Model the fold of this input.
Amino acid sequence: MFPSEFNFVAVSSVAEAVQAKVVAGEDGRFLAGGQSLIPMMKLRVAAPETLIDINGIMGLSGISRSNGHLNVGALVRHGDVVASEVTFGAIAAAAKWVADPLVRNRGTMCGSVAHCDPEGDWNSVLLATGAAVVAAGPQGEREIPIGDFIAGAFTSTLGEDELVVGLRIPVPTGRSGGAYLKLERKIGDYATVAVATHLELDAAGTISAAGLALTSVNPINTKVAAAEAILVGQQPSEELFAEAAEIAAAAAEPRDDVRGSAVWKRQVVRTYTKRGLAAAASQAQGS
Amino acid sequence: MDINVTLNGAEHSADVAPRTLLVDYIRRTAGLTGTHIGCDTTSCGACTVLLDGKPVKSCTMLAAQAQGAEVTTVEGLKTAAGLHPIQSAFTDDHGLQCGFCTPGMMLVGAALITENPNPTEEEVRWAISGNLCRCTGYINIVKAIQTAAARSSAASESTSETNGS
Done:
């Protein structure tokens, strides 16, 4: 298989990339790692007229902490996230469950986020950690909270002329922990069910911030705000996490498919929410 | 468009259509058929090559994206000194049956032991988790990669001893 014909434009700056997109219009697509886009082009699900390769842009390959945030550039590969020592909690936990090792050497975290595959892992993690997407367009840069960025399956609120140049993920200042529990049939498969958890504790050990999001059990990655709300202000406990798990299970709308029955998937959401919150709490208490 | 890559240590250039996939560039343009096309959908790893030393799936990359990069295929493992330790180990440990996945498995193995000279069985299994084998049940592949690692470590130790004396 091979893609339909396209014009190939390699750019070396964000400004050039944005300009190329303005010229190409809606039939232009940005190419970073290409681990979702190229298979789609080979299957002719996508057939952009212009492919704008951003791999040559300097300064987008960094993953670092500054001003209380973890900043991830548009060319940071999943494998770079796995290897990074500046990640934390759910980010660090999820990285090695994205695709397979070879795909992780090419695919980028930002590309995956921008792709908005409802069964993708990163958007759940970003929903749980309260991250924002940094987009560059003709008018400059803007930050889009991840909840506003995800518009639907394979659809974001990114403007037609905008490029995702990075992610800004708030780094907890106090004790914190997180997890990403993913059930998959085999390495490289989509999640059957996955749950991202994030907890922050204050000096008294009370939960001061909580994040919980689900993958593959709703039409899009879903933040379970109602469960987060009952966690905040409470001391971590098995009973509390069981209560949150019931809310998460009720928020899931899984479907029967080759990966399993809806009933079973909902039960996995319940179990993984409990386990994920317990893991996050235990990590936070030890930090 | 003009593509210039370092293929197995030698400069290689050609004028190809932008939509040419790296695997097709390697197999058809450069004539190196050791890199296989299996699933053609980023699942099986038969098309694995090393891009600047890291294993990637060449069916899911444009040749244009390898511009200026170093690409190593299975043909590039052997040197004038003989087979690469991973190749000898696959032979000795019967790390293959039909051989279709073998180029990818060996390249992943070679990259792993360069990065981690003494991988555990668990680490080897993680490393090859993006490569499918339908014959062996993986047992001898894992064993071969560990054998290659042990032999490479032993060889580099004896080299450093020689250099030190």
